[in-house]
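Checked the freezer inventory, then went back to the computational side. Two predictions to log before the end of the day. The first one is the construct we discussed on Monday; recording sequence and tokens without edits.
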Amino acid sequence: QVQLVESGGGSVQAGGSLRLSCAASGRTFSMRRMGWFRQAPGKERESVAAIIWSDGRTYYADSVKGRFTISRDYGKNTVYLQTNSLKPEDTAVYYCAADLGAGWAVGSWGQGTQVTVSS
């Protein structure tokens, strides 16, 4: 299995930035994709961004394109989410996930980190 530990959440004002980190350990050789998801109160969990672990290709939800950037440090088994121009609607618990080849649902998930954006 793969263990994931997120860090970097916090509270910022609208327009601010945060950098989230997710460190993976364990059977990291099995990771195919890593991604960030978020869940706001009363809403379903949604995909934010993902990165193909082997070649670094990235994917983004339309709501964050141009504001968020996902990146990886292959040697450190760490994925980052740089969040810029934050909006109150970005407030949510952000989760890191690893797809081990069978999809996100059965992959590994972190414990989540809270991001709160005030207007």
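The second is the one RB wanted added to the comparison set:
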Amino acid sequence: VQLVESGGGLVQPGGSLRLSCAASGSIFSVNAMGWYRQAPGNQRDLVANITSSGSAAYVDSVKGRFAISRDNTKNTLYLQMNSLKPEDTAVYYCNARIIMTDGRIWEDYWGQGTQVTVSS
């Protein structure tokens, strides 16, 4: 199984980016998914998560600016990030609970991360 993030990059303050995370492999189903971020010297923190039915939750610092969504037909997770601030600069990681076709369960499967840099 793989989780592959894309969409990171360099953006000016106030700009927007859309991150994607595609799950692939012998997947039976993908349950809860989430985005985390880790800035240099900091721990990895939750940004937003979403259940398989679409219920979403956000950390206070991104409420009203970020929107998490998913396409269950494509096993893909998205994060629309608007009004970006320099403090949003971090490596963003995708996380998912995955059930494989052979019955194995990955409780916390991580992608490799994608860098988001907000700077003028």
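For RB: The CA atoms of residues 13 and 85 lie 5 Å apart. The mean pLDDT is 96. Let me know if you want it refolded.
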